Amino acid sequence: METEQFNWLEKELKTAKESEKFVIVVLHHPPFSSGKHGQDSDILKLQQTLLPLLEKNTVDLVFAGHDHVCERSYRNGIYYITSGAAGAPLYEKTFENKYRQFFSSQNNYSKILVSKNQLVIDVFDDLGAELDHLIIKK
User: In the chain, which ranges are E strands?
Assistant: First the structure.
């Protein structure tokens, strides 16, 4: 895939990989989802075109929204967090995501704490109860 945007991202990821401890990518559409949009053609295309680039450049974490769910997936060294359940009508689990580690159909928000050698990602429901907890260490 050779587009101006793809080439820009490839260059940025290479630079980040060389100079940063953690590399985080933020997308609108999640590459993996058990929610309503999990098998949309644009999601499947994203898996084919973008994931090899992310894996090649040792991305640590990908945040996305779009699907109105809270989900954590893990594939080939990369965590994928979908945090799209913050007020819009929620979706139920619709598709089987073989990379899923956690799923919730509750309103939520995420908090990330970054320190020298780790990322701590906590996900809370709208009342402040913890739904998910993840630590990525380097």
Answer: 24-26, 61-64, 70-75, 78-83, 100-104, 108-114, 118-125, 130-137
pTM: predicted TM-score of the whole model, two decimal places = 0.90
Hey, what amino acid is at 98? Answer: K
Show the domains of the chain with their CATH numbers: 4-105 (3.30.750.180)
Cα–Cα separations (whole angstroms), residue 72 to 51, 80, 97: 16, 6, 10
Cα–Cα distance, 75 to 101 (Å, whole number) = 10
Q: What six digits make up the tokens of 16?
A: 């980040």
Distance CA 122, CA 50 (A): 26
Residues forming a β-bridge with 31? none
CA-based torsion, 8, 11, 48, 55: positive or negative = negative
pLDDT tens digits for range 11-50: 999 999 888 889 999 998 899 887 766 676 777 788 888 9
